[in-house]
Amino acid sequence: MNNSIKETLQAILDEASERIEQSDALDKLNDVRVNFLGKKGQLTSVLKSMKDVAPEDRPQVGQMVNDARAKIEAMMEETKKRLEDELREAKLASETIDVTLPAKKANVGHRHPNTIALEEVERIFIGMGYEVVEGPEVEYADYNFTKLNIPEDHPARDEQDTFFINDSILLRSQTSPVQARTMEKGKLPIRMIAPGRVFRSDEVDATHSPSFHQIEGLVIDKHITFADLKGTLEEFAKELFGPETKTKFRPHHFPFTEPSAEVDVSCFKCGGSGCRFCKGSGWIEILGCGMVHPHVLEMCGIDPNEYTGFAFGVGLERIALLKYEIDDMRLLYENDYRFLKQF
Ligand code: DAH
Questions:
Q1: Is there an atom of ligand 1 within 6 Å of 212 CB?
Q2: Which pLDDT does position 2 carry in this prediction?
């Protein structure tokens, strides 16, 4: 009986040894443990057959089984250590860092042409004592139109079709509502510019976008005249486009100013003789302006008999396109670094 158990144990040992040797991963080694040492493993079943062994032989057989278990455990421990070492080596090798490699270049961004142009305009007006203020992009129709002398059903509302949130709230179609907001605060005199995003339901092309930027300007004080408006905008044009720049005020109509004008500057490319840039005319239109309409002053709580003022509105993209000679507005919205870094 002992002999046949001895043979069984030897067979188990041989097989275990072979399977341990073949184990090339820790989970395979664990399978071997379950198979030989586990509750339903081969060694355990040998122990279970002890009841058939003569009582006097049991200590010896028990000893043999224990020896076999110890041998298998020792072999497993050794292999486990070897596998763990190999794993660590492989991990170390795969995580090697070559500290002598050149570092990745840190790509620093670049200011957008719109931003550069805006900062330039802000610099000019801050230099003349203006304050920079902001208004909401989501605006009441009341501020965007009514308080600017564009009553409901006025055809001027159609010229600035925009996106409506509901009947009385919209995405502002111009920065002019900031005029009304500033006047309503009641702090006089006023000298401000208000840059910001505006919206129109326009198709995208080289000169149009449903979302673009304007810079509004407003001056309210006693004794402000059209001469102040002219002097201010002439100075602005010279600062922005160079000291040789001439300005031309063409009569125009805006509901919230009276009289109103559009301002052209002499072409800074050809000096006024006519070129491709100014489409042969020698002049380039840059903004709209006028004397604040007495009705607007009244609606915003300012006495038109005591105070007068002027206002203007500049398209920021238009300034950026002109200043940096960009021929397609869409380039301003693509944020292609290769384009942006040129300015
Ligand atoms: N808000 C006008 C527009 O979007 C531009 C404008 C014209 C603004 C004359 C003014 C102004 O303040 O006086 O077309």
A1: no
A2: 67
